[in-house]
Amino acid sequence: MTAPSESPWPVRGGTAASLDLATDCLVGRARELDEVHGRLSDPGGPRLLLVRGERGVGRTALVRAVAERLRTEGTSVLAVGCVPGDGDRPLVLALRLVMALEEHRSATGRQQPAKAVAAALRAAEQRDGTVLAALLRAALERSAPVVVALDDLQHADAGSLAVLHGTDFARVPPGVRLLASAAQTGGRTAGGSVDQLAGAEWARTVVLSRPGPEDTTALVARRLQATPDTSLARRVRELTRGLPGAVDALLTEWTRQGAVRVADGHAFVGVRTPTPVLPDGDRYLRALEALGEPGRAVAGALSILWPLGRPAAELIARSTGLSADAVDDGIRHLVDAEVVEELPGPDGDTARGWTFAIPLTAHAVRERLGPLERSRLSATAVEALWADQDAAGTRYSGSPPGVALLDETEAVAYLADRIADAGALVDRDRAVTDLTAAAKWRYPDSGGRGLLRWCRAAGNLTERPADRVSTLQRYAKAAYQVGDFRTARTIAESMLRNLADVLSPLALQDTANVFTAATGNDEDWGALTRLATAQWWDELGLPPLVTVTGRALALSQLERWQEALDLLARTEHVWATDVRAGVKPSYFRAVAEMALGRPELFRASLALTEASYLGADHVHALATTMFDELLSARDLHTAEALLTAQGITADALAPRSLFLWRHLQGRWDEALEPARWMLANNQTRTPVADGCVIPARTAAVLLARGRPTSARRLVDSVRHSGEGPREYSLDAVAAEVRRTLGDLTGAERILRRGLEAADTGGHVVGLDELWASLAEIHAETGRTGEAVTCLARLERISGLTGGGRSRLRYLLASARVLRQDSPGAAREHLREAVELARSRSQPFETATTLVAAATADAGPAALLNEAYELFGGIGAALPRFHTRAAMRAAGIAVPGRRQATTENEELLGTLIAEGLTNRRIAGVLRLSEDAVANRLSRLFARTGLRSRTEVVTAVLTGGARSRAIVSPRG
């Protein structure tokens, strides 16, 4: 298999160099590897060491790794393998062993093997195990010292196993060892078996268990050359149960399909990516194919019915026409072949049911069923579950009774999936009711697994036009919720065009909102511009309420705030007559007013006084949108108070909300996970006044962690060309990257461009960052007059918005500008800034303020210690480095000398990996070029790395020699 290539920003998929599966399968096997090697190296150790475990657990990989280690130590190792079909060829393994040993003797110059080989061939042809046993014993005695590696012994013929079991190893020189691998099942029984061989006095067995969650995640990381995100790692574990062979099969198919995406060294599987179907040649399907009938028929039915537990056997017989005995035989053969596992009941004797050893195999078997067969079996499951519900006197209320082997959430999904597959073969009305309930149960589902399928199935099963409208509405909203904006647009537009005479004005308004919002999130700026005109809506003949709502939202998404306000003012008589009808237009007006520097309406809207008139889903959507808006404005306390007031918990938040929240809290590692997910799935647009806030703040985190090149690439990758909203937050972070690299002219150019674009629409919110940065650049370059002008604009914004962030930016920028001419005023501003920053409880913001105050003598030098710890807690390596320098300049001891040295080297390695020259690094670290060269020399000397290229490789791959310079925060 191949792994996706990784370029930190922008996000890409693709392929890279193949990896060594044998090496990958050894992840987490260090203990077993050492145990097997140690036993074989011990003169008093066992003569046969048998490595056992289920299919795909990594037996072959372990045997090969041990053999390779022995060869490097000078031990002669012969490899003899078994393949499917060997069991039907009497004495073939024994013959191979004799021939391999004799050829080994010939290669070492001890003897020509012709006579012994010819005798072995005759004995095999005559099926004379006694003669072949004698020849094998003689070959073993004459070949010492040697280790013979026997792979896949479960395929060996019974006669050869009997020959091995009967060999008197007491007469064989101690330098002869056998290293074998075999499946966990017993193998041949006619005259000899693997179990009998394992029970020999001179044999020992090492059993490989399935890797645990951490080892499975490490295996995925090695295969993809990127750290898997939490959802990807969890999904791999669910589908493969950690078996390396299954993990490889799954990742191979996903990579072949281009489903794996890599962002910033982290791997993701795209939204709604289906589970791949294993190819016919896969090892797990070959094992099933080898069973023949009735095993294959039973497996197909069991892939649908197994969650029902023991009753599944009776249902399989009823649905396939097989006898109960034939079904039992089929299940027993599936268990013996390790395709299915028996789940013991409470008494330990009677099975409570069966499950596939690997869920990925169950999926492959189920998907290979014909559509009619899958529908028929699913209908059997649905009818059985409905019968259980009726017997229990309950309709849909959480977990359906009868799903014996799944937890509540899985049981709900199972019933919904079976209804979707059964289609018209079950009662339509009841099916739609259960599918709708399942969709509500799953909401919110950011991954979309199941949700869209259930909504689509409900729509297909609904016959009455009025009912079909409601299912289509749910389908469009579900598609929007999970990020399938194209589907949401298609359905919503179709409803607007074709069902306007069926939907009520409020339902049409809701549909128009979904359609317009999905168009904006799909970043189709041309279409969104058309939606901002009256002509588009008038052509459909929609009610004025719908037209006004759709146009106002389109204008807002395009950040044409004043036009939106003018429209809403002219049409207030249309939308302000009903509380429910006025909720969305009122909110659009409040956001537009806030964007133009008038936040009073937005603040008043936070009370959600209209909540009692709205449904729970509507209230949740409105509250979380307000939450995002507050976090975009860096108003953490008000945002958290809103969540508390509405009883919304973190698990009910979308990835964008989690990112914005964790970012301000200083929990950057937690924030970056949803940020990477959104970038990998192209879902970074935020329905707030600043639609670019997520990539902008992600880039700011990268910059603070010493990754200016990655930050710049990210900003460039999400910028629009031509149409679209303004990108002032991207301008702010892009300018900060230039400032960090010492390019003040480039930074000023970017800031002025952003400010000019914002001024054309009267935009105010968010521009405090740009004016503050521009004032500081003017101060640095000695243009005090221009800096004061910027301060005046900044102070005006602060007064208009009344926001704590704007006030803080004004205080910090003014202190920088006034430092020379009015040092007293500058210190007063910094003292106020420290008090304000502490009250806002945002670690990065607070630390930055503390450093500014301490270095300008506006507070005790001890503030540097506090800032140093805050920067360390969030992983802001670059400002922490600068704070360390400031502490030394102030005569303050830096805690943890060894840790400080390690952090310096980590940061230096990161900057080199970012492609910066020594001159650029010197500018970023505020050192001389000679100082950077000296630090680099010391890094080479201590780590053994010899070039910048090796440093880059070490940082990107985390090589063993470079662990000291690889930051765990990535």
Automatic annotation (TrEMBL):
Domain HTH luxR-type: from-to ranges: 898-955
Entry annotated with the keyword Plastid: no
UniProt keywords, alphabetically: ATP-binding, Nucleotide-binding
TM annotation in the entry: none
SUPFAM superfamilies per UniProt: C-terminal effector domain of the bipartite response regulators, P-loop containing nucleoside triphosphate hydrolases, TPR-like
Source superkingdom: Bacteria
Protein's UniProt keywords contain ATP-binding: yes
InterPro entries according to UniProt: AAA_16 (IPR041664), P-loop_NTPase (IPR027417), Sig_transdc_resp-reg_C-effctor (IPR016032), TPR-like_helical_dom_sf (IPR011990), Tscrpt_reg_LuxR_C (IPR000792), WH-like_DNA-bd_sf (IPR036388)
Gene3D superfamilies from the UniProt entry: P-loop containing nucleotide triphosphate hydrolases, Tetratricopeptide repeat domain, Winged helix-like DNA-binding domain superfamily/Winged helix DNA-binding domain
Pfam family, one: AAA_16
Protein name: AAA family ATPase
Native organism: Streptomyces vulcanius
Lineage of source species: Bacteria, Bacillati, Actinomycetota, Actinomycetes, Kitasatosporales
